[in-house]
Design goal:
The radius of gyration is 18 Å and the shape is globular. The protein is an alpha/beta fold. It has 6 helices and 5 strands.
Length: 150
C-alpha cells in the first residue's frame, strides 16, 4: 500500500494533495514531509505553512550554490522561520552559508548512520534548533493567567 510503519513511525509514499490534507487534519502529533527537490506548487505551499520549514542542502563548496538558488527563487516568501541544515558540513562551510544567506539559522548535521537510533550529537543539534524556534514563538498566556487578570 501507500503506508507502512517502522518502530511506531508511519511512512506514506508520495501522496496527492487530498492525502496530504487528510494527514495534516489527522491525529498525528508530528508530521515530517520530505518535499524533495521538485518545485511542485502544492508541496511548496505545505513547506511555507510548516511550523518548522527545514531546507536541507549540501555543505560541499561546489554545491552550495544550490541552496542559494533555492532561496533566490523563493525570495517573495517570508523566510524568517526557515532553518537550513547541511549534513556532514565542516564548520567553515556552515559559516560561509550563513554569510551568503544572511541568517544564523544554518546548522551542520553530524554523521548519523541509523535514523531510527538516537545519536547524542544529532540530538544536540536539533535541541539547539528547537530551543531557538521556541524562543521565537510569541508568548501565550494561559487560561488561568487571563482569568486572574480579568
Amino acid at each position: 500500500g501507500r503506508q507502512f510503519a517502522v518502530d511506531g513511525v508511519h511512512y506514506w509514499k508520495q501522496s496527492g494533495r487530498a492525502d496530504i490534507l487528510s494527514l495534516l487534519g489527522g491525529s498525528y502529533q508530528f508530521i515530517v514531509m520530505d518535499l524533495g527537490s521538485g518545485q511542485d506548487q502544492n508541496r511548496l505551499e505545505e513547506f511555507l505553512r510548516a511550523d518548522l520549514p527545514i531546507v536541507v542542502g549540501s555543505g560541499a563548496e561546489w554545491k552550495q550554490a544550490e541552496i542559494n538558488a533555492f532561496v533566490r527563487s523563493h525570495h517573495r516568501y517570508p523566510r524568517d522561520k526557515w532553518i537550513y541544515c547541511l549534513p556532514l558540513a565542516a564548520t567553515d562551510a556552515v559559516q560561509r552559508v550563513r554569510r551568503s544567506l544572511n541568517t544564523p539559522s544554518v546548522y551542520g548535521l553530524p554523521l548519523h548512520i541509523d535514523p531510527f537510533d538516537r545519536d547524542p550529537q544529532t540530538d544536540k543539534v536539533f535541541a539547539h534548533i528547537l530551543n531557538h524556534l521556541i524562543g521565537q514563538l510569541p508568548k501565550k498566556r494561559s487560561f488561568f493567567a487571563r482569568r486572574k487578570n480579568s
